[in-house]
Write a structure and sequence with these properties.
377 residues, mainly alpha, Fic-like fold, Arc Repressor Mutant, subunit A, two-stranded antiparallel ribbon
Length: 377
């Protein structure tokens, strides 16, 4: 077994919790097949990253949004891309969309941190605080801080749970060990990401949000170690094979390591290839939009708005003006030009937002449809 079971007391009844072995000094357990899978995945990651256009920031935001939505979907938080995009910019969507938007903010923070600094517990706590800032079911002290109570996964209590992570008094030392391992640079990056993820999920250091933070760590490691502009949307591929995810993770905890790393490498490979495809599909869509704008003054705001839509697929006139640095009347004209050509259409978020007359919203619905079909492919 990759760890040990310890006895715990739950309301006067005895059961056990799993304590994973320390990681800091471990090497990646690889056989020939797993090593080849890791090489394929690394090659796909590099090709996908090189495939991003020179001005990649709008696509960077779109790729991270796809990752954030998929990661939230795994936890049962399902919201449409337009609702999430609106919730990122204003308090106009429902509770679920706001939670998914918070997830995206945490993902962006982690990726930006990966470009500049190593991992520490303060960063993890900050990402968790961002992720759970609107989580009404958590007490304020539970947001951005390690848990102080016993947790479990599945079932009604640790007595009938599918998995019981370590007692809370062991969590700080286990997390210090994980952070040390995550900062190593002498391991295969993809194997390292796999090991950090399964260790984090086994520790389950927070009262809630562990799955999302654990998947966020994957992006942090891959971005940092491979110097990627944008990590692949791994959660999209994990959500397509939940059975493989849970089965190989369980095998890891039972002491059989290579199936988990091999499965993970295949998922990263698939995610990188799918990101490559998404970049092409967005480029084709934008070209189709440009053809629809034929006849509109080429230096006008409508053209600038066209390039902004992958990053901001839901907008108001005020937000468009702010993003493009133009006046609100010019923003309205740009939105009207795109609406007349079927590029954006009116959209009503699920919550009213600020008191008074609600803002008018527009959405690039073709982007939402494209992301949906791509994620299912």
């Amino acid at each position: 077994m990759s760890g040990r079971d310890v006895a715990i007391d739950w309301r006067g009844r005895r059961t056990t919790a799993h304590v994973p072995d320390p990681l800091a000094q471990r090497s990646a357990p690889l056989d020939v097949g797993t090593a080849r899978a890791l090489e394929r995945a690394a090659g796909s990651l590099v090709r996908a990253d090189e495939h991003l256009p020179i001005h990649f920031e709008p696509l960077f935001r779109l790729l991270l949004r796809a990752e954030g939505i998929a990661s939230s979907n795994i936890e049962g938080l399902q919201a449409s891309l337009p609702e999430v995009a609106a919730a990122e910019l204003a308090p106009v969507s429902g509770e679920v969309a706001s939670a998914v938007a918070d997830n995206l903010h945490a993902v962006v923070a982690a990726v930006l941190d990966a470009r500049h600094t190593g991992l520490d517990q303060a960063s993890l706590d900050r990402w968790h605080g961002t992720l759970m800032r609107d989580a009404a079911h958590l007490e304020p002290y539970q947001r951005g801080a390690m848990r102080t109570e016993q947790s479990w996964i599945g079932g009604l209590s640790p007595l009938d749970a599918a998995f019981v992570p370590p007692p809370p008094d062991l969590v700080p030392d286990l997390m210090r060990d994980l952070v040390t391992f995550a900062n190593r640079t002498d391991l295969d990056p993809i194997a390292q990401a796999a090991m950090v993820h399964v260790q984090f999920e086994s520790i389950h250091p927070y009262a809630d949000g562990n799955g999302r933070i654990g998947r966020l760590l994957i992006g942090w490691i891959l971005t940092r170690r491979l110097e990627l502009h944008s990590p692949p949307p791994v959660s999209v591929r994990i959500s397509a094979d939940r059975g493989g995810y849970l089965a190989t993770m369980t095998m890891w905890r039972l002491g059989t390591s290579t199936p988990w790393i091999g499965w993970f490498a295949d998922v990263v490979d698939s995610a990188a290839r799918s990101a490559y495809v998404l970049v092409d599909r967005i480029a084709d869509l934008q070209q189709a939009w440009r053809e629809r704008l034929t006849g509109v003054r080429s230096d006008g705001s409508a053209w600038a708005l066209l390039e902004l839509l992958p990053a901001c697929p839901a907008l108001t006139a005020g937000l468009t003006a702010e993003q493009l640095g133009i006046g609100v009347p010019s923003a309205r004209k740009a939105l009207a030009a795109l609406e007349a050509r079927g590029i954006v259409k009116p959209f009503t978020p699920s919550a009213p937002g600020r008191p008074g007359r609600p803002d008018s919203w527009w959405v690039a619905s073709e982007i939402a449809d494209l992301i949906g079909s791509w994620a299912r492919s």
